[in-house]
Amino acid sequence: MARTKITVIGLGYLGATHAAAMAELGFDVLGLDVVPEKIKLLEQGRTPMFEPGLEELLRAHAAGVGGSTGRLRFTDSWAELGDFGDVHFICVNTPQKHGEYACDMSYVDAAVESLAPQLTRPALVVGKSTVPVGSAERLAARLAELAPAGEDAELAWNPEFLREGFAVHDTLHPDRLVAGVRSARAERLLREVYAQPIAEGSPFIVTDFPTAELVKTSANSFLATKISFINAMAEVCEAAGGDVAKLAEAIGHDDRIGRKFLRAGIGFGGGCLPKDIRAFMARAGELGASEALTFLREVDSINMRRRAQMVELTREAVGGALLGKRIAVLGATFKPDSDDVRDSPALNVAGQLHLQGAQVTVYDPKGMENARALFPTLGYAASALEAVRGADTVLHLTEWREFKELDPATLGDAVAERHILDGRNALDPQVWRKAGWTFRALGRPTA
Ligand code: UGA
Q1: How large is the ipTM?
Q2: Using CA atoms in the order 304, 165, 431, 368, what is the torsion angle rounded to 10 degrees?
Q3: What is the distance in A from the centroid of ligand 1 to the CA of 377?
Q4: Strands 153-157 and 123-127
Q5: What is the pLDDT of residues 398-434, one digit of tens each?
Q6: How far is the CA of 268 from the centre of ligand 1 (A)?
């Protein structure tokens, strides 16, 4: 029997990683994106974004790279895609709609509208994008209407749980695989595609469409809730004089609570958690179940309050007025090991300080280009040392390893005032205080 051929539609963080990982698992893969520049880069084994390990994987398989397996090719032709694939993965993004909580389904809808008319033989279309519950049902109906293969062109829902910064690892070794299917054939095809991770022990959970869609949004809601829970405890610690880092360590030793995702700080950002909880609330409202998710509104507002608190701490550190004060911001991305600045708490805090009249200089190991594109009016420096030169206060807002390894004495010689605020609870207060700095962190005592 011929090996299953795979296509991937949408080549962002999710799609580019999925396509490369499928080639790594031995499949012939054809990727499509509507942005020609993206295709050109990927063909050369390069990525439009920074994701550890991804370029190596692309270079190992992209047909345009000498010495590669040649299993991974790219196209902009829907006809070629339809002709090639047995299993088509939809990996396009579903960003938050401007000025609304709901997410924008137009890229997913367009993918189905463009692909379906090309499906003249049996095929499985697999949705991986994060969508409002009920979308798969609607898209399956549209597929049946448009595909010449009729019932032989089928839909499945297979949400993705990869983390930026660990995308390659998470795709090749998923914690679990979730398959929303309507037929034994769809389940068999997905089991075949994921045979290796299943053999290595990844649980494979078979369910219906709505449950598969909800697993994704509820998992991200749980993670967001966990972060906001510890950030709420940070607020209480600030009021009561407690230490949220110690508190998190202590409660995390209880296995039922767990230690992960309990780092208090300026909160969650990125292209997923913030928009996913909002889209989930919007969808629950449409379903008449909004009361079930009102707590997510609180999760969101705790999260946004932490950014405001960071601005307040900065104001206090510089003596009450931000106007004209020089603030160095270490970190621009929403988390380390990523160049993604979408809804980044770090950049948001930097932007608020700038709007209140401070002179802000930002440095980030990988996010400079994206940060500059989003916030061109901020100052940017080529290194941490350059960013802190002459600063009245230093803010640590994304916990890159590079920042943990900074020498407080060297930085101390460059700044105007030795004040550092740790917005990620990732630096060691003792080390900085010993070097003569005043050190403050969210949810922790002043000294
Ligand atoms: C998140 C989920 O973790 C993935 O499982 C999911 O697949 C992905 O969204 C998605 O929906 O595509 P990601 O956005 O890459 O992944 O980032 P996370 O590692 O979850 O971090 C999110 C934010 O929470 C970051 O800003 C991070 O700094 C913050 N965070 C995380 C904390 O403030 N405290 C913590 O303890 C952990």
Answers
A1: 0.98
A2: -70
A3: 27
A4: parallel
A5: 999 999 999 999 999 999 999 999 999 999 999 999 9
A6: 7
Residue ending a domain, among 275, 300, 325, is 300
188 and 223 housed in the same domain = no
pTM: 0.96
Confidence grade of residue 446 (pLDDT, cut at 50, 70, 90): confident
Is residue 439 within 8 Å of residue 394, measured between CB atoms? no
CA pair distance 363, 67, nearest whole angstrom: 37
Q: Is the CB of 226 under 6 A from ligand 1?
A: no
How many CA atoms, within 13 angstroms, populate the side-chain half-sphere of residue 389? Answer: 8
pLDDT of 164 higher than 90: yes
Pocket lining: 297 vs ligand 1, CB cutoff 6 Å: no
C-alpha separations of 114 from 4, 77, 142, 324 in Å = 22, 10, 11, 53
Q: How many domains does the chain have?
A: 3
Looking at the fold, whether 54 and 171 belong to one and the same domain comes out as yes
Query: Mind telling me the catalytic residues?
Result: 272
**The two three-digit tokens of residue 64, written as one number:** 């345009």
